Structure to design on (246 residues):
């Protein structure tokens, strides 16, 4: 199981900002604070070590007795979302119950890569063309009412059943999605917000989990910093020269 720390947050929406070199960067604004340490999980008591974080305030009239007791034990207000992050015992010991954690405490340095997890937008029941990008039926003379149908789904004698995993119409979206290796473009500490380059799953005001990237230690953009390989095809080379890209 992954042992990476992260923060709970709320997706505010998308906007654009300008980098120091003038590049226009599309970013997603995520409200990541305050995150409160609600408790700890230890190997001796629970069999594993983890940090329990809470995010968002919840009215007292909506809090049940168990959640109210947990908040009282941590000496904090009741929270709306609670999530555990599996961490080594040494990392868990660095935090105290009731402590407030901000993005500056977790994402340190420049070009920090993060993984963002959220629930994608639900699209309802959709057909095979929208859900699986199938081609559809030909629109010629003699074709009637079969333009967006899925077509045949199996055979008669062999295998006498529909194969598992057959792409068919059904529920689309409304599932957990993780986008890996995004860049923390900027941290706005006074507003408890971070700007993440690119889009993240879910709609506005959706709850997301921003954690340290699992596969990278430094963010690198695809295709940036690579020297262009010159084509050996003379026709392509002449087209580039004509376009002024030689």
């Amino acid at each position: 199981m992954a042992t990476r720390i992260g923060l709970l947050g709320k997706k505010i929406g998308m906007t654009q900002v300008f980098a120091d070199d003038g590049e226009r960067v599309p970013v997603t604004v995520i409200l990541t604070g305050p995150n409160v340490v609600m408790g700890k999980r230890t190997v001796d008591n629970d069999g594993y070590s983890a940090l329990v974080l809470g995010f968002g305030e919840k009215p007292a009239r909506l809090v049940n007795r168990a959640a109210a007791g947990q908040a009282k034990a941590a000496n904090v207000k009741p929270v709306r979302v609670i999530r555990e992050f599996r961490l080594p015992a040494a990392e868990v010991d660095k935090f105290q119950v009731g402590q407030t954690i901000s993005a500056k405490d977790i994402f340190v340095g420049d070009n920090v890569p993060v993984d963002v997890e959220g629930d994608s937008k639900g699209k309802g029941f959709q057909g095979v063309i929208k859900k699986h990008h199938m081609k559809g039926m030909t629109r010629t003379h003699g074709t009637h009412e079969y333009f967006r149908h899925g077509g045949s789904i199996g055979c008669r004698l062999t295998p006498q059943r529909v194969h598992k995993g057959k792409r068919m119409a059904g529920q689309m979206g409304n599932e957990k999605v993780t986008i890996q290796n995004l860049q923390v473009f900027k941290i706005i500490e006074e507003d408890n917000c971070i700007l993440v380059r690119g889009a993240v799953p879910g709609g506005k005001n959706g709850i997301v989990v921003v954690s340290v990237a699992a596969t990278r230690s430094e963010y690198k953009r695809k295709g940036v910093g690579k020297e262009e390989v010159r084509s050996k095809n003379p026709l392509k080379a002449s087209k580039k020269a004509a376009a002024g890209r030689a």
